[in-house]
Write a structure and sequence with these properties.
The protein has about 270 residues and is of the alpha/beta class. The chain has one domain: Rossmann fold (3-Layer(aba) Sandwich), CATH 3.40.50. About 50% of the residues lie in helices and about 15% in strands. The strands form 2 sheets. The chain has a 7-stranded parallel beta sheet, sandwiched between helices. It has a two-stranded parallel ribbon with strand order 5-8. Helix 1 packs across helix 6 and helix 3 packs parallel to helix 4. Bound molecules: NADP nicotinamide-adenine-dinucleotide phosphate. NADP nicotinamide-adenine-dinucleotide phosphate binds next to helix 1.
């Protein structure tokens, strides 16, 4: 029987590249997005079904997950929807903070929760969430983004015990820079004059870092590996940049690594 993957945030970037890769490997793909009526490419592909899903809408999560399960036996749920939030904490509104947590963290938790009874009954299934290298290391002025991505890493590890009782897996894919619209349409930011100097430095550095970014297709390959390797493993660090930084942090420890980042960015 054909395998099926359910993807959130499949309208662009990594979500869309993952939809195309799995489709090309013969999977059924349930590609969810906020505005499926606008999608013109995935809708042309065989075995791809588009469904509406805003991951901050708990009611829509319930109805879309029910529709997905009725369509195909789902094997893998890929929690990918997310965006960046940049700015000093005192520059951010409560609304901005809530929206980031609602999307990047609670969206993942709620979509997962909606699928668990189904996976438990069939005694199989796998959750994969897109975190980030920002889920195991930090840069200045991204504290809320890091809070959500560190949270998804820790939550996934914590969930592995109860899900393991029912033969359900949970994994994270932690990419470095990906050449997508993330720094354009998917970055919410606010400035505050008291942090102007770091903001300028950081933006210069982000541009340099994005020069070594992976393509969305390269990171989608890691999602495919995580979905199909059958390993009892949680974290898949994805991309040369993320792997180099991960190795450096392991080598010198988190405290020294933090000082190194501070020196590099703040001088
Ligand atoms: N690009 C990077 O450098 C990078 C690095 C590390 C991790 N990541 C992570 O990779 C994931 C995908 O990002 P990307 O790089 O592919 O950026 P992207 O091309 O901008 O895609 C972001 C996707 O998330 C969707 N989304 C945002 N809020 C949503 C919501 N409330 N409900 C449903 N979908 C929502 C967007 O949908 P709409 O089209 O409706 O806006 C879009 O499909 C994110 O979790 C991001 O944190 C990205």
């Amino acid at each position: 029987m054909q395998n099926t993957i359910f993807i959130t945030g499949a309208s662009t970037g990594l979500g869309k590249a993952t939809a195309k890769l799995f489709q090309s490997k013969g999977w059924n793909v349930i590609a969810t997005m906020r505005n499926p009526e606008k999608e013109t490419e995935l809708s042309q592909l065989e075995n791809v079904t588009l469904l509406p899903l805003d991951v901050t809408n708990p009611e829509q999560i319930k109805t879309t997950v029910a529709k997905a399960i009725a369509l195909h036996p789902v094997n893998v749920v890929f929690n990918n929807a997310g965006y960046g939030l940049m700015g000093a904490l005192e520059a951010l509104s409560d609304e901005q903070v809530l929206k980031q947590v609602n999307t990047n963290l609670l969206g993942v938790i709620r979509v997962t929760q909606a699928f668990i009874p189904y996976f438990r009954e069939k005694k199989s299934g796998l959750f994969i969430s897109t975190t980030s290298m920002g889920g195991f290391l930090t840069f200045p002025l991204h504290s809320i983004y890091h809070a959500t991505k560190f949270a998804v890493e820790g939550w996934s590890e914590g969930m592995s015990f109860e899900l393991g009782l029912h033969n359900i897996g949970i994994k994270t894919v932690a990419p470095g820079g990906i050449a997508t619209d993330f720094l354009g349409r998917s970055l919410d930011r606010n400035s505050n004059g008291a942090y102007q100097e770091i903001e300028d430095k950081l933006f210069g550095l982000v541009d340099v870092m994005m020069e070594s970014a992976s393509s969305a297709q390269q990171i989608a390959q890691v999602v495919y590996e995580a979905a199909t390797d059958g390993k009892d493993r949680i974290r898949y660090v994805a991309g040369a940049d993320a792997n180099a930084l991960y190795a450096r942090r392991q080598e010198i420890g988190s405290e020294e690594f933090r000082k190194e980042i501070r020196k590099q960015i703040l001088g």
